[in-house]
Specification:
CATH superfamily of one domain: FAD/NAD(P)-binding domain
CATH topology of one domain: FAD/NAD(P)-binding domain
Bound molecules: flavin-adenine dinucleotide
CATH class of one domain: Alpha Beta
Largest sheet: 8 strands, mixed
CATH architecture of one domain: 3-Layer(bba) Sandwich
Helix content: 25-40%
Shape: globular
Number of strands: 20
C-alpha cells in the first residue's frame, strides 16, 4: 500500500490517459499513471514485425482531426502517406471484379453519397453530437437496416455494406446509423475525405513517437503491470486497487479503460445503472487487423471483399527486400485465426490473384481483456441512451477515452479530445478536495 496521496491517478496509458496526465501534471499537480500493460500507447502499438516497424493498432491521422493534428505540430512530428493504389479488386453481385482504384471509389460513392447525405442535418455541430435532438428519432436504426431499406439487392448494395463493415470493424446489424452519420459530419458530409482520414496519413516514427513525446512531456510516473480491479471513493480520496494487491490513492481519478475492459472493474460506490448498461452494451467493433507479408514485389493495390467475409479489406502498404507488406481488416475476429498464414492467404486469394503469403502478424484486440474491442464504434441506441451518462463524473472519478469522445470517437483524435475534457473535469473536482486557492489557479489555466 502506497502512503502518498496524489492529486490525480490516471488509469490507462493510452492516448486519453497520456493527455489527461500531461495536462494535469503540467499545471503542477501530482499525477500517477497506472497501466496494466508493460508499455504505453494502449490500442496503438508500433511493434517490429515481419521485418519492419508496423502499427498493430491505431495508425492513420488527418488534418481534419484537430486534437491529434495539434499534438503532431506541438512535438514536431510529421506524417507520411500510404502508397496510392494502382489496382483495385472487389467482390460484388456474387463475383470478383478488377479495375482502377477510381472505379472502385466511384462504385462506393454511387450509393454512399446518398446514404450519408443527412450527416450534417442530424449533426450540424459535429463535436457537439447532442446539440440537437433530431438524431434520437433515428438512433435505433442500424446501418444494415437503413442500407437495405434505401438500396435494392445487388452489386452496389454489396459494395456499400462491405465498406461500412470495414468502417465499423464489426457486423452491421446493430451498428448505429447515427455513428456512421457522425463520422461523415466531421468531414462536412464528404465521405471521400472521411475515407482519406481513415486510411491515408501515418505518423513518421509511428504512433509510438507521439505517445512517447506526450508521456515524456507529462512528468507523471507510470506504474506498469498494474491491472485495476477495484476503485473506491470515500468522498475525499479515490483508491485504485490492482489485481495483485497494490493500491494507489489520489484526490481524484481519471479512468480511461475501454468499455469492454471496464466490465472487469468494480466501483464503490457502485456505478449508476445507465453507466453499467452502456458498459454492458459495449461497442460493435470486435473485428480484426492483420499484417501480411507477400512474396514478391507488387504494385500497390486495394481490395474490398464481401461484408460477411472474415477479411473484407486489404491495402498494400510497404515494399521490403523484394516482398510486399499488406494490411487487412475483417469484421469479426472470431471468424478467422489471423495468426494462420494459410487462412489469411485463402481470404486474400478470393480477391487478388497469385498471392503467396509468407508470414502474418497481428494482435487479437477483441480477445484482449484490456481492450475487448478495436476502434470504438457505437451500437444502436448508444448515443442517445448511454453516451451522456458514460461521460459523467462519478464522485471523484472521471471517465475518458475514445469510446466516449464527442468528436472523432473511435480514433486517436477522440482519445485526446476526451483526455483534455477529463483534465478540466478533474481540476473542478480538485476544487472541493484540495486547498481551494491552489486549484482555482489550475482551473483558470486549463480553461
Ligand atoms: C486495430 C485498430 C486499428 C485502429 N486504427 C485507427 C486508425 O487508423 N486511426 C485512429 O485514429 N484510430 C485507430 N484506432 C483507434 C485508436 O487506436 C483508439 O481509439 C485509441 O488509441 C484509444 O485510446 P484510449 O486512450 O481511449 O484507449 P486505449 O488506447 O485502449 O487505452 C486504455 C489503456 O487502459 C489500459 N487498461 C485497460 N484496462 C485496465 C485496467 N483494468 N487497469 C489498468 N489499465 C487498464 C489499457 O492497457 C490501455 O493502455 C484503431 C484501433 C485498433 C485496435
Amino acid at each position: 500500500m502506497e502512503d502518498e496521496l496524489y492529486d490525480v491517478v490516471v488509469v490507462g496509458a493510452g492516448f486519453a490517459g497520456l493527455t489527461a496526465a500531461r495536462e494535469l501534471s503540467r499545471q503542477g499537480l501530482s499525477v500517477r499513471i497506472v497501466e496494466a500493460r508493460d508499455r504505453i500507447g494502449g490500442r496503438t502499438w508500433t511493434d517490429h514485425r515481419l521485418g519492419r516497424d508496423l502499427e498493430i493498432g491505431g495508425t492513420w491521422v488527418h488534418w481534419t482531426q484537430p486534437y491529434v493534428w495539434a499534438e503532431l505540430k506541438r512535438y514536431g512530428l510529421d506524417t507520411t502517406p500510404s502508397p496510392e493504389p494502382e489496382r483495385a479488386y472487389w467482390w460484388a453481385g456474387g463475383s470478383r471484379h478488377e479495375g482502377g482504384p477510381d472505379e472502385l471509389m466511384e462504385l462506393i460513392g454511387g450509393t454512399n453519397a446518398a446514404f450519408v447525405q443527412d450527416a450534417r442535418k442530424y449533426f450540424p455541430v459535429p463535436f457537439s453530437p447532442m446539440s440537437r435532438d433530431d438524431f434520437k428519432a433515428i438512433d435505433h436504426v442500424s446501418v444494415q437496416d437503413r442500407i437495405r431499406e434505401q438500396f435494392p439487392a445487388g452489386a452496389p448494395r454489396d459494395i456499400l455494406e462491405s465498406f461500412w463493415a470495414l468502417n465499423f470493424n464489426g457486423p452491421l446489424n446493430n451498428a448505429a446509423l447515427t455513428q456512421a452519420l457522425r463520422w461523415v459530419a466531421l468531414t462536412n458530409g464528404d465521405w471521400a475525405v472521411n475515407f482519406e482520414a481513415c486510411a491515408t496519413y501515418k505518423i513518421v516514427g509511428g504512433t509510438a513517437a507521439l505517445a512517447a513525446a506526450m508521456c515524456g512531456d507529462s512528468g507523471a510516473g507510470v506504474e506498469y503491470g498494474f491491472t485495476v480491479r477495484h476503485i473506491s471513493d470515500d468522498g475525499g480520496a479515490v483508491s485504485v486497487h490492482s489485481t495483485d494487491g497494490r493500491t494507489v490513492s489520489a484526490r481524484t481519478a481519471v479512468v480511461t479503460v475501454p468499455l469492454h475492459a471496464l466490465r472487469a472493474v468494480d466501483f464503490d460506490p457502485p456505478l449508476p445503472r445507465a453507466k453499467n448498461e452502456g458498459i454492458s452494451l459495449g461497442q460493435v467493433s470486435r473485428g480484426t487487423k492483420v499484417w501480411i507479408r507477400l512474396r514478391g514485389c507488387r504494385a500497390p493495390f486495394v481490395a474490398l471483399g464481401g461484408a460477411d467475409w472474415p477479411l473484407n479489406f486489404f491495402q498494400a502498404e510497404y515494399g521490403i527486400d523484394g516482398d510486399t507488406i499488406v494490411v487487412g481488416f475483417g469484421p469479426d475476429a472470431s471468424k478467422i485465426d489471423v495468426e494462420d498464414a494459410a487462412a489469411v492467404q485463402h481470404q486474400l486469394a478470393r480477391l487478388v490473384p497469385d498471392v503467396d503469403v509468407v508470414a502474418v502478424a497481428s494482435h487479437n484486440w477483441a480477445a484482449d481483456p484490456l481492450s475487448g474491442e478495436t476502434w470504438p464504434m457505437h451500437a444502436t441506441g448508444f448515443l442517445s441512451r448511454y453516451l451522456p451518462a458514460l461521460q459523467e463524473a462519478h464522485g471523484g472519478v472521471l471517465f475518458a477515452g475514445s469510446d466516449i469522445a464527442n468528436g472523432w470517437g473511435g480514433f486517436i483524435d477522440g482519445a485526446i479530445e476526451s483526455g483534455m475534457e477529463s483534465a478540466r473535469q478533474a481540476a473542478a473536482v480538485l476544487v472541493g478536495r484540495r486547498r481551494t486557492h491552489d486549484v482555482t489557479a489550475v482551473q483558470a489555466s486549463l480553461r
